[in-house]
Design a protein that fits this description.
about 170 residues, Double Stranded RNA Binding Domain
């Protein structure tokens, strides 16, 4: 009886492994990598009004290229794809007020205009990212809160860009 139960367990595990491996699933980063390639370069158009935020966005984009696309950051001349990022001025909208009418929660919104360039192809994308955060009532937004909000909303905008590129990659056969 013991051998029979071991055989059933091995058979079921084998069946599950074979079933999962044959489902055709591909992660979205693989589709995006098919469109963008393995070597990506990035540049950002520095905002005249808010140059510090441009640096934060550049860091978020570079981090996303490595973590989400699983690609290498290279110089433009070695890249299969070059991404040019232009950031809109961040906006902060109040979301929630306390009983005294003071703002206690904001939503930061970033819009990224991304131009994807390769040897003989250019396409533009618009991507929006938001980030909700709490503040102390009757206080001014600190630089750290602003930078964090921009960083996290930029990362969400990049994730939306990944979804757009992945959708393109899934349609190409």
């Amino acid at each position: 009886m013991k051998r029979y139960s071991q055989f059933i367990i091995v058979f079921l595990l084998s069946f599950i492994v074979v079933s999962i491996s044959n489902c055709g699933y591909k992660p979205s980063s693989k589709y995006a990598r098919e469109i963008l390639g393995n070597k990506i370069s990035t540049s950002i158009v520095i905002s005249q009004t808010d140059p510090e935020n441009s640096v934060v966005v550049k860091d978020a984009v570079d981090k996303a290229v490595i973590e989400v696309f699983h690609a290498s950051l290279v110089k433009k001349r070695y890249a299969t794809t070059h991404l040019v990022i232009n950031m809109s001025t961040p906006s902060y909208a109040p979301l929630q007020y306390d009983n005294d009418g003071f703002i206690i929660s904001y939503r930061a919104t970033i819009t990224l205009m991304i131009s994807r360039e390769s040897k003989d192809f250019k396409k533009n994308y618009t991507s929006v990212g938001t980030y909700d955060f709490s503040v102390v009532p009757n206080s001014v937004l600190t630089d750290q809160e602003r930078f964090d909000a921009i960083k996290f909303s930029s990362f969400k905008a990049i994730s939306a860009f990944v979804a757009q590129v992945s959708a393109e990659g899934s349609q190409v056969k």
